[in-house]
Specification:
Blueprint (H helix, E strand, L loop, with lengths): L4 H7 L17 E4 L2 E7 L15 H23 L5 E12 L7 H16 L6 E7 L8 E9 L11
Parallel strand pairs: 3-4
Antiparallel strand pairs: 1-2, 2-5, 3-5
Length: about 160
């Protein structure tokens, strides 16, 4: 028998916050044909600044992990249970960085590692990462994600 994701979170000492509200005129997620598209989320605490100027790569890694925890909170809110996640499909990171910064991929590893820690093999995903001259609220990173999710017997997978 496999461990529930809730038990796995406890084992990892991860406490999910309430899902944060969207920062503008959009929704936290859209569900379509078994896929849940999660809007961009930044790290909790709303740190401000750029990688390569205000923050190190190691700090960026932690920010990406915190942004991932925000995504997990949205998933739990949408699905009722993280056990309904069949797999992570794609993540995209936008790293607020200086023009000469080159370790964007190492920053986004914070989120990738979180997904694999939480979901195991189901957490492996495709991804892309981009350096950004600016992002909303001057956050150091924003991540957006796509997950394949289970549908219940009524053909629904997401709480409305």
């Amino acid at each position: 028998m496999t461990m529930s994701i809730e038990n796995r979170l406890q084992q990892l000492n991860i406490v999910l916050p309430d899902a944060s509200d969207p920062a503008a005129k959009y929704v936290n997620y859209v569900y379509l044909n078994g896929l849940l598209f999660v809007s961009g989320k930044g790290p909790s605490g709303h740190p401000r600044g750029k990688l390569g100027l205000d923050y190190t790569t190691e700090q960026g890694y932690q920010f990406a992990r915190l942004a991932g925890i925000e995504v997990l909170a949205v998933l739990k809110n949408a699905l009722g249970s993280l056990d309904k996640v069949k797999r992570a499909v794609k993540i995209q990171g936008f790293v607020n960085a200086t023009a000469d910064y080159e370790e964007h991929h190492k920053v986004l590893n914070g989120y990738s590692d979180l997904l694999i820690d939480v979901f195991g093999e189901k957490g492996k995903h495709a991804r892309s990462v981009l350096g950004a001259v600016s992002v909303r609220d001057n956050l150091p990173i924003i991540v957006d994600s796509i997950f394949e999710v289970e549908m219940d017997n009524d053909g629904n997978g997401v709480e409305q």
